[in-house]
Design a protein that fits this description.
Blueprint: H1 2-39, H2 45-49, E1 52-53, E2 58-59, H3 62-93, H4 98-111, H5 115-129, H6 136-160, H7 164-172, H8 177-205, H9 209-212, H10 234-244, H11 248-284
Length: 285
């Protein structure tokens, strides 16, 4: 009797998991097909390589693409060194006491803060207090703050996967703690670290709320991007075309084309993360 109840419970659990997965995949496929079918007609080399024209009713999305690339680079330069170093300190040097646990809890809580809160904080800190103005630099630093908790968490988890016996073996042959971390621990954790970094940057590249207050512009025809100037970005460009443009019906094909390009960019970044992980694991074997 108990065996039959166990089997029934297992079947129900398995069915629930499969059912919810299929529902999520169904809606994901519907959304992607909607964007692909309505956006593929706008894709062309001219669409990718030309700037918006005539109030964004014509032309392409070169300016938003350049802005997205630049802000992602600034985000990476700011968040990766600080995030990785913080994770190394927490996992390798910090004692496992109450203060360390509070810091870890705070970092994980920051991961759940809505992105618009980071946008308001970036407005107060970088735009107003540090007087950077609404600019590419202010927006990039804001996205860097948003990315820090994710990079710290994923890097620390990658470091935790390295067995303590590996560290002890390096110390036993005369290596210092710093040399052990630099030459043994970090190289072994690189696949997990890079995967987390790339996935975090792909998320940052698609954010709209943080750059809404800190530097994204409605329309710029100049492709020369400067750190102290406003910029265009793909997610904000898509938001404006879809909700704020004076001729929404006229620019709808451009909006779908922009959405498709943004999805392709994020997909390629995620695909590169899986490739990096696979490549390193293959080399280890």
């Amino acid at each position: 009797m108990q065996l039959n109840k166990f089997k029934l419970s297992s079947i129900l659990e398995w069915g629930t998991l499969v059912g919810t997965t299929l529902i999520v995949c169904f809606f994901l496929v519907v959304i992607i097909l909607e964007i692909v079918t309505k956006g593929v007609g706008s894709l062309s080399w001219e669409f990718i390589s030309s700037v918006p024209k005539e109030g964004m009713t014509k032309g392409g999305i070169l300016t938003p693409i350049i802005g997205t690339v630049l802000i992602t680079l600034i985000t990476a330069l700011f968040s990766i060194p600080f995030g990785v170093c913080c994770a190394i300190y927490l996992n390798e040097y910090a004692e496992n006491n109450g203060l360390t646990r509070i810091i870890r809890a705070a970092i994980r809580n920051l991961s759940g803060v809505p992105s618009i809160i980071y946008g308001l904080f970036g407005l107060a800190l970088f735009v107003q207090t540090l007087q950077l103005g609404t600019s590419l630099l202010a927006a990039g630093l804001t996205l860097g703050l948003l990315s820090l908790p994710y990079i710290i968490t994923t890097t620390e988890e990658a470091l935790m996967q390295i067995p303590n016996s590996t560290r002890e073996a390096a110390l036993a042959v005369g290596a210092t703690k710093f040399e052990t971390i630099k030459d043994v621990v970090i190289p072994s954790a690189v696949p997990g670290i890079l995967t987390g970094v790339v996935l975090t940057l792909s998320r940052a590249a698609g954010e709209t709320a943080p750059i809404l207050f800190t530097g994204a512009a409605f329309y710029i025809s100049d492709t020369n991007g400067y750190l102290n100037q406003e910029f265009m970005a793909l997610p904000y460009h898509l938001y404006m075309l879809s909700t704020q443009h004076q001729s929404i019906d006229e620019v709808r094909p451009i909006a779908y084309g922009t959405a498709l390009v943004l999805i392709i960019v994020v997909f390629l970044l995620n695909l590169s993360a899986f490739y990096i992980r696979y490549k390193f694991r293959k080399n280890e074997n």
